[in-house]
Amino acid sequence: MNIEAFNKIKIDVHKPFEYKQMLNSTVVRKNTNCFSVAIGSTCTIDKTLYRLGMLSQKKPVNETYKSFQEIEDLFLSDLEVLDLRYVKLNLKTKPSIEQYVSTHPLDKRSHIAVLFAKEMADKKIHDFHFLRYDSEIGWCEKRGHNQFLTNENITWPCNWYDQLICCYKITR
């Protein structure tokens, strides 16, 4: 693992999320993904680290995901090595998550991350996706290499084959 990149990401996730860099910097948009948004990083030094399990060194970059549980476990392992605190919210639907964020104000150090995964017809997990909510910008997501979307522009779920896996409150 690129230790310099890991250390920069770890520092970055403990600062306020620089969402304006996502909006305004092509370099940031091309070198980050939805996971980087979920953890609050705009560090562009090594985008391979923005794959679940890479930061915690539990999943090689070329190995496929085996289950929804594995994806969640890898997410939590990555949060732990970044020293991010988390609480699982037992919320499995868009209305329950929206109700939660409307009735539980978040402080400036906390945000909500919602994890989705794509299981295809062959029963393999092909990808993951995150939505993020914080009190400053509301809902946001990073799609592909160029799109950083906020509020009314995000979609639930992101694609017809996405399944909501888990929802966490994360605190830096």
Secondary structure elements and their pairing?
Elements: H1 3-12, H2 19-24, H3 26-30, H4 34-39, H5 68-81, E1 85-89, H6 94-103, E2 110-119, E3 125-134, E4 138-143, E5 147-150, E6 162-171
Antiparallel strand pairs: 1-6, 2-3, 2-6, 3-4, 4-5
Give your account of this protein's structure.
The protein has 172 residues and is of the alpha+beta class. It has one domain. The chain is built from six helices and six strands, in the order αααααβαβββββ. It has helices at residues 3-12, 19-24, 26-30, 34-39, 68-81, 94-103, and strands spanning 85-89, 110-119, 125-134, 138-143, 147-150, 162-171. Strands 1-6-2-3-4-5 form a six-stranded antiparallel sheet. The longest helix has 14 residues, at 68-81.
